[in-house]
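Sample entry (171 residues):
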Amino acid sequence: MKLKLAVLLSLCVMVGGCTREQQAPQAAISPTASPSAQAVPVPTPSFAPARVLIDTEEGSVIIDAEKAETPEQRSVGLMHRTSLDDDAGMIFLFFEETTGGFYMKNTLIPLSIAFIDGRGSIVKILDMEPCEADPCEIYEPGVPYEAALEVNQGAFDEWGVQEGDRVTVTH
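Predicted structure, serialized as tokens:
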């Protein structure tokens, strides 16, 4: 019996413990670091380029965009950016119908967002303001969508983009 207990204890030590929960690794923290310096920065995901074409009554608009397709990419979006080129944006792709809202936590520039349905039609356009601290406003479209395009605030108005216009995303 003692031998079985000793073997079991040895296995637990070799495997790293006998708990069911796995703990996340702790970051190395300097004992002299301030509490704010102890936070581990979250790496910014990379975004693939995309070209977005919007067909309006006045003609076509081409936007050089970054694609946010994964949950990680969508959760970061345009956070911490200090500027966005005039003809640039970010396209959020969901691959299925969704209804959730967007928020501007840690987003430093005012943006406009166009929500796009599965047929490629813009179903809602909203203006969004930067937010540095919670609680941040949630910008709800109130309609189902499968993609959303963020650009500098007011750009859709300048380009003549309206609800009902058609959007095509190419890679």
